[in-house]
Every structure is written in C-alpha cells, then in structure tokens.
Amino acid sequence: MRTTVGIIGGGPAGLLLARLLHRTGIDCVVLERRTRAHVEGRQRAGMLEQGTVDALRECGAAERLDTEGMVHHGIELRFDRERHHIDFPVLTGGRTVTIYAQTEVVKDLVALQLAEGPPLLFEAEALAIERPESENPLVRFVHEGREESLHCDWVVGCDGFHGIARGTFPAALGRTHEHRYPYSWLGVLADVAPSCEELIYARGENGFALHSMRSPRVSRLYLQVPNGTDPGDWPDDRVWDELDARFAIDGDWTLRRGPITAKSVTGMRSHVHEPMRHGRLLLAGDAAHIVPPTGAKGLNLAVSDVRVMARGFTQLHLTGSSQLLDRYSELCLERVWQATRFSYDMTRMLHTRPDRDAFEEHLQLARLRRITASRPAAAELAANYTGLPIPL
Ligand code: RFL
Ligand code: PHB
C-alpha cells in the first residue's frame, strides 16, 4: 500500500486529521488497532472548546453536534459551601463551550470517513515505523492476520499515550517531561437528568467532585479518589453519598440520583514530549502530551494539533513550501505548555493532597476566592477554559 500521509490511530486526532486532509485533496490512510465498536464506545471527554466546534463545523462534521450539543455559557465553582458562577461570554467577549461527548465526535467522524473516504482500517495494528528520517518512511502493520507495509511520504502518530510512534523518536533527540498526581478520578455515568445547567467544579472537604453531563437524560460525574482505588469498592450508594457531601452548599440544591451504568477509575498525569516532529514523523494529541482532565483540555489539544498540521500539509500541497510543517512542533508546544499549566493549576487548586496541610488549604481557598472576587482573575480562568487562540 502507498499513500501520502500514513496516520496511526483512529481516535479524535487521527480521524479529524484524515477528514481535514481529505477535504483539501491530500490522500491518507488511517490504521486503527481496535474495532469500530470499541473506538466508538470509549467513554472519555465531554467539553469542546469553541475552536474545536468551529473545526468540526468547517469540515462538515457538525450536523449532529449542532442539534444535540449543549452550549454552555459558564461553569460553577463550589467551595466552602458556596456556589459561584463564572460567566464565559461576559468575561471573554462572547465565547462559549459545548458539551458533546467524545464518543459522539468519534461516531460522526467514523461515519463520514467510511462514507466518503479516505481509507480507515479497523483492527489494523501498526507494529513499527521505519526510516522516519528519510523521504519514504513506512509503517509495518498487521491487518486480518497478515503483515503489510504502508509506504508514505509522511507518517503521523495519533496513536495515543500507549502507541508506538513516540517510542520511534531516537532517545537522544527527544525529551519527556512528566508529573504524576497523588490521586485519581472515579468516573460514573448515570441515567438521570443533570442536576444543574452548567458543569460544577467542587472543592469539597474530602476532595474534588465534578458534575458534567452527556445529554438531557444522562449525567456524568467524577470523584477524586486515592490512586489504586478499585471501582468495586464504590457501590452506587457510596458514590451518591460522597457526591452529595462534596457538592453540599448552604441553600437549596439537590443532586438527582439514578441508576449508574458505568464506573471506572483513571489516574492523572501531565506528560509532554518534545519535539513533536522527527524527520517525516509527526505526533499529535495524546501521543505527544497528556494533561489531567480537570481543565478539559486533552481532546481540544488533539484537535488544535491536527488543525496546525493540516494547515502545514495544505501549504506543502498547494505551494511546495514546508515552512509551516517545519514549525509544527514549536507552534503546537507553545499552546500545549499553556494548557499543561492551566490543567495543573486547576487540578492543584481543587484537589486535596493526601499530605494536605492547613497552609496548602488556605492557599487553595485564597486562589478560589480571588477568582470569584476579581474580574481579571475570573477572566483569566475563562480565557483558558474556553481555549487560547490557535497559532495560525
Ligand atoms: P486516543 O483517543 O487515545 O486515540 C488513539 C488511538 O490510537 C489507537 N492506537 C493504535 N492504532 C494502530 N496501531 C497502534 N499501534 C496503535 N496504538 C494505539 C488507539 O486504539 C486509539 O484509538 O488519542 P487522541 O486521538 O490523541 O485523542 C485524545 C483524547 O482521547 C483525550 O485527550 C481526551 O479524552 C482527554 N479527556 C478530555 N479532553 C477534553 O478535551 N475534554 C474533556 O472533557 C476530557 N475529559 C478526558 C476526559 C480523558 C479522560 N480519560 C479517560 C483519560 C475525561 C477522562 C476521564
Ligand atoms: C466530561 O464531561 O467528561 C468532562 C467535562 C469537563 C472536565 C472533564 C471531563 O474537566
């Protein structure tokens, strides 16, 4: 097989890149090691920045998003039994975010790609990337039990945190920065209408809790739990009781309870790999960087990476200039580090460390009070949450 751009990974990054390239007439092939059902069912992100929504719209992938996505004008911060609204349009000059599950973004992109191309192979696992420094790199992969080669002009690793692309960078040329957090998230899906119109980020006495949603009938909730927690130790009543305690305010508010349909625990880390390009191999999304989910940035960063990359490939295709592609890593990393900083700050401000002390707790509350009392401080949060500009 031969193609211009070989894409490893059919998550949001790989699928959107394929769509953007296809729209400008650049041929590509996507290799995805899992089944379609698995990729479409993976329960993950839910918050799309305005720029992410715009990108999906521009490539004709927002028909369902535009009818089913829930536009949010802010978030609520809860601490000290008080609730505070952060108004995004007022603080950012009109920006909003949209709640639309990653599962749905992926379903929409898969359906378009299977209908219109370019080729998307499921159960096609990339084993190795060869000659990334040359002008004709190749991907060796297994599909339907047969080993095959995909000859490319370029290879893009959109293969997530556990993929093979990042490991292909020579150790001496790459650098990894990592931070691990001493807590995890227990995430649940519940068949019950959301208890609020906006997302609630709560700093409770026993730790963080987040109220999100998937639809007018399905709630998505998260609880900070210790690393190594077994979801089996959290029967439904315990989950609801703890959520109740962490969201508690002085005043009227009720958390609606309903049947829990899924429960899982996710560890939290920050991870950045520099650079994001080596020869003709480029990385995008979780393959290059991971942020803790508190800032809701992971999927949005994956989208901004591939937007920059698609611009670069388009420039090369139309003008023969590789100027943008040559700056790909530098352009993306600027925004990646800003999102890494924001996600780290949000996480540290809202979670309780196992080695908590009174000094740290006072600082957390002082940060939260500053945000709710000072318009510039709130505007800074709103600008980061709704998404910093893409350097294009
Ligand atoms: P993905 O989604 O991991 O996709 C990578 C794909 O590559 C495939 N693959 C291979 N294919 C072929 N050959 C190989 N050798 C391969 N190795 C791997 C995998 O099967 C997979 O299909 O990465 P991508 O595309 O970069 O997308 C990134 C996002 O999925 C991720 O950043 C977000 O889900 C993070 N995230 C959130 N991001 C947001 O922007 N907003 C949120 O609200 C948000 N909430 C979350 C989140 C992530 C969470 N978890 C579970 C980590 C909430 C949670 C709980
Ligand atoms: C989600 O809806 O899954 C979600 C929303 C916001 C976050 C993290 C996860 O910060």
- Low-pLDDT segments: none
DSSP helix count? 12
> Rough shape?
globular
CATH homologous superfamily of the domain at 5-70 and 99-177 and 269-348, by name? FAD/NAD(P)-binding domain
Bound molecules: 8-demethyl-8-dimethylamino-flavin-adenine-dinucleotide, P-hydroxybenzoic acid
Helix content: 25-40%
Task: Report the CATH topology name of the domain at 5-70 and 99-177 and 269-348.
Answer: FAD/NAD(P)-binding domain
- Arithmetic mean of pLDDT: 97
State the major sheet.
8 strands, mixed
Count of individual beta strands? 19
CATH architecture of the domain at 5-70 and 99-177 and 269-348: 3-Layer(bba) Sandwich
Q: What's the Cα radius of gyration?
A: 21 Å
- What structural class do the secondary elements suggest? alpha+beta
What fraction strand? 25-35%
- Distance from N terminus to C terminus (CA atoms, Å) equals 33 Å
Text of the CATH class of the domain at 5-70 and 99-177 and 269-348: Alpha Beta
